[in-house]
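pipeline/complex-builder :: batch 7 item 3
reading input block
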Amino acid sequence: MELFVFILELAGTAAFAVSGAMLALKKNMDVFGVCVMGLTTACGGGVIRDVLLGVLPPVMFRAPVYALTAIGVSVVVFLPSVRRALTADSRAYAAIILLADSAGLGIFACAGVAAAVNAGYGDNFFFSVFLGAVTGVGGGVLRDVMAGMPPYIFVKHVYAVAAILGAMLCAALWVPAGRTAAMLSGSALIFLLRLLAAHFRWSLPRAGDGA
Amino acid sequence: MELFVFILELAGTAAFAVSGAMLALKKNMDVFGVCVMGLTTACGGGVIRDVLLGVLPPVMFRAPVYALTAIGVSVVVFLPSVRRALTADSRAYAAIILLADSAGLGIFACAGVAAAVNAGYGDNFFFSVFLGAVTGVGGGVLRDVMAGMPPYIFVKHVYAVAAILGAMLCAALWVPAGRTAAMLSGSALIFLLRLLAAHFRWSLPRAGDGA
Amino acid sequence: MELFVFILELAGTAAFAVSGAMLALKKNMDVFGVCVMGLTTACGGGVIRDVLLGVLPPVMFRAPVYALTAIGVSVVVFLPSVRRALTADSRAYAAIILLADSAGLGIFACAGVAAAVNAGYGDNFFFSVFLGAVTGVGGGVLRDVMAGMPPYIFVKHVYAVAAILGAMLCAALWVPAGRTAAMLSGSALIFLLRLLAAHFRWSLPRAGDGA
């Protein structure tokens, strides 16, 4: 069971590291900047989660495997042959960032719910969902701020709403369906909602709409 | 006594939520953005306070009433009829934001002092005042950063100075005058200083002045 | 031994306060802004360090000497005669900021390693070095963000790399050479690397280089 969560978290770490490192390439950062962007995107949400839970020092410092994975992935993205392949086609480039970011968002939102449950807050639905959403979107917000861009979460589509809905599904299924089914369902829902929202350009009502 | 602090905090939460939600309207955010802005402005200072105190998870996660109040207020602000009324007159709009922000600043600065005293740091005047000031200005700083604006605290008037003076009054009166009198006096001082500073355009000496 | 670390930390606090206060002067901030910038630059890295370590409330709140030093230095920098002298010559001005920032970076990076060791994480090389680097660069990042500038760490030279290398040297020498030698060696290495990097305009490979 623990192994399953661990593998899922490593996959989310790698996916977010790809999205951070590729944005750094686009901003023409040096190799250190690419690694910092990959690391922050991949581990930032988890650090925020652990600070809010009072789990200190955060897990990423006690288990270096996450940070090393993020840095390793970032270095690979920076390799001349890899980065040339990644950036050769701007449509493929955008698609890779979208897929990597969506996978990271889904996995980390449910990892956040799992951390709340493990810390004994499973009966606090509000906190479990909030922690899941913050864990999911935190890394991306830090990535965008560090790249000098307005956080994606505030400008587009139903990004954070997808994280909240998936975290709610995950928290609701936790007891009846078990951890594995809950985390896979929640992650999949977020991944799909995020892709559908990007494809169909879904957006939420604005103050200017028909007001 | 606890009830009094609780009611004051709810009032501050609602006031800050109004200021955050209305700034989000001005920035043409969608309904989710309006709620996030209202929630962050209202609860951000308290989360920073609790992290610095080591009270984890922060109170807003263990007592969802604050977050639900902030979100509820934000949704009401977003309602077409309400927002039309709020934004119809730009002078009235500015006045409402000023009043709501001033009330929130005064209440939260004193709630921060109360939190420091309750955690056993009542004899550390420096920490009590600092925690009060940070609790008071924290939500507004997050609001401005999220809206892509330079934090108000750094550009105008005696905003943070008012919070510090009110927190000092509150901390100094705590033992001799009692909690209720201390918090009401401190909050009122901040509210008045903030309004007077805005009205008379008070500012502090700058490097360029007569140097 | 404790006294040695204390004196080193006070020196780093003063150096960072100078760099923050002088940047505030350049941005034409008022006297309060100058003090906040000096305080945040000097104490920001330590607060981040203590939050990550779970040492709460952070040391700066329990031992006001650091904050008072930072505020005192900032007020001195703001004094008309001092600021005229500091800003009269733009080359001297840049040199003072560079020296103060380099000294602060070196001292705080090693103070971060010391904090990790004191908290019992001396055998976790990864965490000790990371905490050192974050403590060193944290204040400067907050300073740049508050001044509305892109963090220096992301735009120039080998700033953070110097902090990481010096923290590694400090952590590696801790057991064999003792605390004093480890901290002095690490701080000196960072100070020198930072100055050399600025002088020779060292930079790291970018994605655009020969790709």
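note: Residues 90-121 of chain C form the longest helix (32 residues).
queue -> next item
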